[in-house]
Structure formats: C-alpha cells, structure tokens
Amino acid sequence: MIYIMRHPEKARVFMSGRSQAVRIPAAYRFSTEEIFIRRDPQTGDVILSQAPGTWQDIFETLDTAAFPDDFLTDRNQGQPQRREDL
Question: The domain containing residue 57 runs over which residues?
Fold first, then answer.
C-alpha cells in the first residue's frame, strides 16, 4: 500500500536524557504507551506502529483483512535439496 502525503508535517526531535525523542503532532498520536519501531532496510525510513493489543484485537483484524484468493494454497516447490551429512 502506498500512502501519498500532500503536505508533509514536521516533528520536533530532541534529547531526553541519553535518548533521542520525537514530539509527534496531535494528528499522529498513539493510544498506547508502547509502540513498535523498525527501519525499512531499502529506504532507511523509520516506521512506528502501534501494538495490536489483545489476542481478540488480532483475531478481529484477521477477520476483516483482505487476503488474496491464493493465500496459503499449496505451492509446487518440488523435492527438498539433497545435502551431505555433517
């Protein structure tokens, strides 16, 4: 999914003790005290995401998610490679 941002907003970066912190604009606030952070290896973008919450939240998300018709269908991968014993 590609998101197009028409007018990029800025966030303030500052030091908080020995950690770097970012003040997120109100429109992007999270409703939790803990989030996940990762860096996209191709673009270098830092990605913040909210934890899914409870198992019930996860199952509800999976129930409403759109998966392709061939999701989890059998694949013809052939025989496993033959390898030498160690």
Answer: 33-67
With respect to residue 62, please indicate whether it lies within any of the assigned structural domains: yes
Residues 33-77: pLDDT tens digits?
Answer: 888 888 988 899 988 888 767 888 778 878 887 888 888 788 777
DSSP states of 49-83? EE---SHHHHHHHHHH----TTTT------SPPP-
Distance CA 43, CA 58 (A): 28
Q: Does some domain include residue 48?
A: yes
Any residues with CB less than 8 A from the CB of 11 and at least 6 apart, and which? 22, 23, 24, 25, 28
pTM exceeds 0.85: no
DSSP state of 7: S
The number of distinct structural domains making up the chain is 1
> Count of alpha carbons within 13 Å of 29, Cβ hemisphere only?
6
